[in-house]
């Protein structure tokens, strides 16, 4: 029997993927918030779920630790631009389905009293703190804006408040976190939703097991858009 390993991250990706899995007849048999296990069985003996950090999903899938995974477009593109990415040779991962879940956007935000437009116009060097150094580098290079990037792993909102940076590049959904920290969104970089990512080798070798899963996801997505 061909084993299928699906990489998910805890939290919104896991929660929002469950209904799609259910539509494909797959029930995860343990709750990641209640167990310390990192490998979760499902009701399908040939399908298991591995729990990894959101930003590790593309790495697991690319190198075969998982056959498929669900990851935000932010994480997928940051991975493709990074050291493990496909570079000129093309993508290291297949990305066959936009699952439309975990929607948000990647944006530039600053303190309300920082004149971002003026800084850009004057060709000033801007200090930008972000977890997304590759996407940020590409965005500002495309705009011809000079930036010094500072890599952070969390609490990005703090950077402009403490003088660590002039701006941040971070995910925004409702904007309430920015607002609570007196920050304003000054530029949209990328609309984000979670995608199914597939190991290219598994796509060929496990096609017979993967195809029905992808078909079920597509049917569930079509049904939910029809009802929306
Ligand atoms: P982590 O904090 O470990 O990165 P999250 O659950 O916060 O995990 O984020 C996982 C993915 O969910 C992100 O890569 C992004 O695609 C998406 N996401 C993050 N924040 C939001 C948000 N506020 N609203 C909707 N989707 C989000
Ligand atoms: Mg988070």
Automatic annotation (TrEMBL):
Domain ATP phosphoribosyltransferase catalytic span(s) in chain numbering: 53-217
Domain comment (free text): Lacks the C-terminal regulatory region which is replaced by HisZ.
InterPro entries for this protein: ATP_PRibTrfase_cat, ATP_PRibTrfase_CS, ATP_PRibTrfase_HisG, ATP_PRibTrfase_HisG_short
GO cellular component term, pick one: cytoplasm
Record family assignment: Belongs to the ATP phosphoribosyltransferase family. Short subfamily.
EC top class named in words: transferase
Organism of origin: Inhella crocodyli
Lineage: superkingdom: Bacteria
Biological role stated in the UniProt entry: Catalyzes the condensation of ATP and 5-phosphoribose 1-diphosphate to form N'-(5'-phosphoribosyl)-ATP (PR-ATP). Has a crucial role in the pathway because the rate of histidine biosynthesis seems to be controlled primarily by regulation of HisG enzymatic activity.
Catalytic reactions of this protein: 1-(5-phospho-beta-D-ribosyl)-ATP + diphosphate = 5-phospho-alpha-D-ribose 1-diphosphate + ATP
Record's keyword annotation contains Nuclease: no
Subunit and interaction comment: Heteromultimer composed of HisG and HisZ subunits.
GO BP: any one term: L-histidine biosynthetic process
Protein name as catalogued: ATP phosphoribosyltransferase
Pathway given in the UniProt record: Amino-acid biosynthesis; L-histidine biosynthesis; L-histidine from 5-phospho-alpha-D-ribose 1-diphosphate: step 1/9
Signal peptide: none
Broad class of where this protein is predominantly found: cytoplasm
Keywords assigned by UniProt, alphabetized: Amino-acid biosynthesis, ATP-binding, Cytoplasm, Glycosyltransferase, Histidine biosynthesis, Nucleotide-binding, Transferase
EC number: 2.4.2.17
A molecular function (GO) term: ATP phosphoribosyltransferase activity
SUPFAM superfamilies: Periplasmic binding protein-like II
